[in-house]
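Section 5.1 Outputs to date
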Amino acid sequence: MSSIITLTLPGDPLFTEVARQTTTSVASLLTGENRSASDETQFIHDFELAISEAFTNSVKYAGEHDTPPTVTLTFEIEKRRLTVSLLDANSPFSIDTPAPDIESYPENGYGLWIIRKVMDCVTYRREGNSNIISMSKTL
């Protein structure tokens, strides 16, 4: 059996912390079943990092609007797996971007690379005018 939680936030940098803290709380629901504390801490940290990056990208690429567009987070909790999807109405993008050239110290380009590094599975799809990036990890 799975549980689904949906949260819609303004696509404003002020709400990045709300997205991150909500993700921390939801990821914590999967902990406490005699797993190692370090595995649980890493699991929660990986989701905090991935959501911070994804939400920041969503806000950054939203463009100019009179009012901020929304970002919808959907959390699907399964027995040992958490999947988080972010939906926004930004322009299409590709998650298949190459890893940044770390030797040249680029200022941008790390977000999707970080997300792919810390999650077990990352997918992207376009539905109508919406981007949906989903990321999942098993504890």
